[in-house]
Amino acid sequence: MNRSVAAPGGRRIISVCTVGVAVLMLCPFTAAATTERAVAAAAGVVYGGQTAQGLPVVLETSRNGRKVKALAAIRLSCTSGSGGTVPDSWAPMTVSKARKFGLSFGPETQRNSDGTTSDFEGSISGAFNKARTKASGTWSLKMTVHDASGAVADTCDSGSVSWSAKQ
């Protein structure tokens, strides 16, 4: 059974009940002779890389470079001994003048048809290098499942996962 919850800003989380992830990354190659050209080239491009878990991460900037969207495959480990790899994405985030970005959410509760509830929470933080040719940061995702009586039945957590991506 797949469980999902829609979060503010159009963000959608798919729980550990989902089996497997397939992500196709297309990363344009841009050669820049100067920092100015690198900054101009970074606007509206896609960055690709991987997490410390060895899974894919993709960032896409807006044309003006002030917004960035992120998508990654994240592995969760559960206290019950189960776990899984799920897709996780973040709606456009504002990139500061210091080239940093980040968001967090939760816990947000989803009521399930079987009387249980699932609390979701997560965060992302990152920064581009000065030339805006690379980005790195951390990503986390957590789901806490409560049984019908409200007791915690399982907790699935990625922990803080570092990631890096480049043009």
Describe the structure.
With 167 residues, the chain is mainly beta. The chain has one domain (4-166). The protein is 5% helix and 54% strand. The chain is built from 1 helix and 11 strands; from the N terminus they run ββαβββββββββ. A 6-stranded antiparallel β-barrel has the order 3-4-5-10-9-11. A two-stranded antiparallel ribbon has the order 1-2. The longest helix is centred in the N-terminal third of the chain and has 8 residues, at 35-42. The model is unreliable at 1-42 (pLDDT under 50).
Brief synopsis:
The chain has 167 residues and is mainly beta.
Quaternary state reads single chain
Count of structural domains:
1
Write out the strand line-up for the largest beta sheet, numbering strands in chain order: 3-4-5-10-9-11
Low-confidence stretches: 1-42
Helix content: under 10%
Radius of gyration: 17 Å
Helix tally equals 1
Largest sheet: 6 strands, antiparallel, barrel
Beta strand %: over 45%
Number of strands: 11
Structural class based on helices, strands and sheet pairing: mainly beta
Identify the overall geometry.
Answer: elongated
Mean pLDDT over the residues: 81
Distance between the termini: 37 Å
- Listing every helix as H and every strand as E from the N terminus to the C terminus, the arrangement reads EEHEEEEEEEEE
